Amino acid sequence: MWLFSQKIDLFGLFLPVWLSWIVCFLLPKSVLDQTTPLWVWVLVVMCIDVSHVWSTIFRTYLDKEEFKNHKKMLVITPILVFLGLSVIAFFSVLWFWRVMAYLALHHFIKQQYGFLVLYQIKNGEFIKKNEKQIKWFSDKNILYFSMLYPVFFWHLAEKREFQWFYMGDFWHFLGYTKFYTSFLNNYWIYFHILYWIIILYWLYNELFSKNFQKNQKIALGKIFWVMTTAINWFLGIVYFNADITFTLTNVIAHGLPYMILLFFYVEKKKYNSPPAKPPSPQRGSKFKEGVKSAFISMKNLILMLIFVLLLGFLEEYCWDWWINRQKTEFFSYFLIYPSELIQNSYIKAMCFGLLAMPQVAHYIIDGYIWRNNKKNPHLREIIFGGK
Known about the structure:
By secondary structure, this protein is mainly α. The chain has one domain (6-272, 287-384). 72% of the residues lie in helices and 0% in strands. The protein has 14 helices and no strands. It has helices spanning 6-26, 29-32, 38-54, 64-69, 71-91, 93-123, 139-156, 178-214, 220-239, 243-272, 285-324, 328-331, 345-369, 379-384.
């Protein structure tokens, strides 16, 4: 048993990411040299990245119990985020996107670690504040290393042909001296080799040394998660140098697992809630109830997807209507633009703050709603079966 189930984990969390690698390797150079095509942006950025942000509302604002448990945080966070981002955008658009990029980076890294912790708890191997957790080759250290090394490479290597949100949002330190540039260009290959030696040593320890010593089953789900993260970040940032490959590897590995976790939680919570009136026992009722429950869950899943896709569409439409007009080819098929681009600096800054608020609020709120504490009383039961 992995996190949800072997089938859900394999086909929901891992296979989409692995398939994205195959797509990246099959793409011709003529495509890699271009910016992300519009249809890829629609399917990947709008339908996965932006929509997964909105899916958080089913775990918070649209759930009476959850909203009550986190009411103060859920009310104050969007207000403070809106005000802070609006002020930054008023003084500097570049710094607005720079803050957004580093917040997103932190969020993406923390989500990968969050899933790792879930796997560790599921495997019964997560020991808080234990000496084993501070070893150089601990699961936590290797996971962080697998992501931070590509990020450092991004900051120090020759120009990357992609950005997180906005050209120049990440600082780039290359080019201060000729010696510095020459040194890194000549030695990156050795750093890459060392990177993989460290990660493969951890893998060897998980597959052989560690499990032979303790006579434990191999934690395949955790191993797949760490190795998929390492390969994905290395391919998306280091190996490939293209906007489309970064988009595919970055978004799919982040957005899909989150939506699966959230929808699983929401539906499991409904299923675990006792009915107001227990059904009377009937012959064949278990089978009928199972079919009915599966049908209701599928219907709920479709409705939630439609809802978050609609919200993601409206958010991106407002970005295009008020701020940039970069996707008119797509949005003009569905809606008109009632006015020209916003020019007033005060109103424009508030639009930046308003449109980015759901995303940054999602970053902050996520740090509270997935904590195993009294404010999330159903988390352990739903995710770990009451362990």
